[in-house]
Design goal:
By secondary structure, the chain is α/β, with parallel strands linked by helices. The protein has 2 domains: 34-235, 3-Layer(aba) Sandwich (Rossmann fold), CATH 3.40.50.1170; 248-361, Rossmann fold (3-Layer(aba) Sandwich), CATH 3.40.50.40. Helix content is 31%, strand content 19%. An 8-stranded mixed β-sheet has the order 2-1-3-4-5-6-9-10, with helices on both faces. Strands 11-12-13-14 form a 4-stranded parallel β-sheet, with helices on both faces. A two-stranded antiparallel sheet has the order 7-8. Strand 11 (249-253), helix 8 (261-268) and strand 12 form a beta-alpha-beta unit. The longest helix is centred in the N-terminal third of the chain and has 17 residues, at 2-18. The chain is globular, with a radius of gyration of 24 Å. It binds D-aspartic acid. Residues 44-45, 61, 91-93, 124-126, 149 line the site of D-aspartic acid. It comes from Stutzerimonas kirkiae. The active site is at 45, 45 (o-isoaspartyl threonine intermediate), 125. Residues 1-25 form the signal peptide.
């Protein structure tokens, strides 16, 4: 055996030396025709790693670098010319307003570049819906911006990250995805960044939109069934290039035996608005009403959302006299989405009538 190897090795070496050099310097015609997609990596489970293939829910998020994510799906190069940038490496439950601002500025800068046709953002699933909505409000470009995550780490059996990433690049490189606002691609579905939220905490079919997905992506092709009607991206009055910081907005959850402790604490901490995640149709427990009226009189905006959120919306002046109290309703936005819109809206210092208009339109 050893003699055989000794004879083959020099021949193999000779063959390698005789092979024509594969040049990566020149763009092939095929590459020239492919769209250019940039993958901005921020962390999350899609970059996670577990101790064994059986660990589909027990793992460490935000471990794998973007180069490894891209290398793990070689088929991406059949879809687009892809390059990766590591923006953060964090679990998304720890995202801060500064993370949102930094990421949005990087997206806006890339979207202006003629050599960028689409952007994919790999992101933790916990707050993916918040980042997606924020970008939907402040990025002035109609180029596809697609958020993607995974519910299982790449080390797990039946990991979902590879196909989710492939699908996200397939949508981001697709001209039919232009002008549809910021999107989220998970589990073969294409969702509006405005509508989508994480509805299940450990299944791959985790992301839902109360009014339905916009479409599906199958074997690299996007199939559309709806388009967003609410204002977004190029139709938005908000622009990341005009936003230096975001005001503090907090969420207080409604439940039985409620008192005003949380609302008072948030006001003391400097909140400019409080999202009331009310029971039912955004109801406010009687002991809390006087405090919310007083906080409104002190200049805080009070925005009624609901802890119930799958296909309904908070009706103005139904459970509470919003006109008389000068309060705002979040319409169909869940509390975490309402917080994002309130933060962005308050950068323009609107009165409550203007703020309510913004909640109707976005
Ligand atoms: N901790 C979660 C996050 O980073 C992991 C995930 O599901 O992506 O959002």
């Amino acid at each position: 055996m050893k003699i055989l190897l000794n004879r083959i090795a020099p021949l193999g070496l000779l063959l390698v030396l005789l092979m024509p050099p594969v040049s990566h310097a020149r763009t092939t015609d095929a590459e020239a025709k492919l769209a250019n997609v940039v993958i901005l990596a921020t962390g999350g489970t899609i970059a996670g790693a577990g101790a064994s293939a059986a660990n589909s829910a027990t793992y460490q998020a935000a471990k794998v670098p973007v180069e490894q994510l891209v290398a793990g799906v070689p088929e991406l190069k059949d879809l687009a010319n892809v390059r990766g940038e590591q923006v953060f490496q964090v679990a998304s439950e720890s995202f801060t307003n500064d993370n949102l601002l930094q990421l949005a500025r990087q997206v806006a800068k890339l979207a202006k570049q003629a050599d960028v046709d689409g952007i994919v953002i790999t992101h933790g699933t916990d707050t993916l819906e918040e980042t997606a909505y924020f970008l939907n409000l402040v990025i002035h470009s109609d180029k596809p911006v697609v958020l993607v995550g995974s519910m299982r780490p790449g080390t797990a059996m039946s990991a979902d990250g590879m196909l989710n990433l492939y699908n996200a690049v397939a949508v981001a490189r697709d001209a039919t995805a232009r002008g549809k606002g910021v999107l989220a691609v998970m589990n073969d579905e294409i969702h509006s960044g405005r509508d989508v939220s994480k509805a299940v905490n450990i299944r791959t079919e985790a992301f839902k939109s109360p009014w339905g997905a916009l479409g599906m992506v199958v074997e690299g092709k996007s199939y559309w069934f709806r388009a967003p009607l609410k204002r977004h991206t190029t139709a938005s009055e908000f622009d990341i290039e005009k936003i230096d910081s975001l005001p503090r907005v907090d969420i207080a959850y409604g439940y039985g035996n409620l008192d005003d402790t949380a609302y008072q604490a948030f006001a003391k901490a400097g909140a400019k608005a409080i999202i009331h995640a009310g029971t039912g149709n955004g109801s406010v427990a009687a002991p809390v009403v006087p405090t919310l009226k007083a906080l409104r009189a002190d200049g805080l905006q009070i925005i009624r959302s609901s802890r119930v959120n799958q296909g309904g919306f908070v009706l103005r002046n139904a459970e509470q006299p919003d006109d008389a109290n000068d309060w705002v309703v979040a319409h169909d936005l869940n509390p975490q989405k309402a917080r994002i819109l309130a933060m962005v809206a308050l950068t323009g210092n609107p009165d409550s009538q203007a703020l309510q208009r913004i909640f109707w339109e976005y």
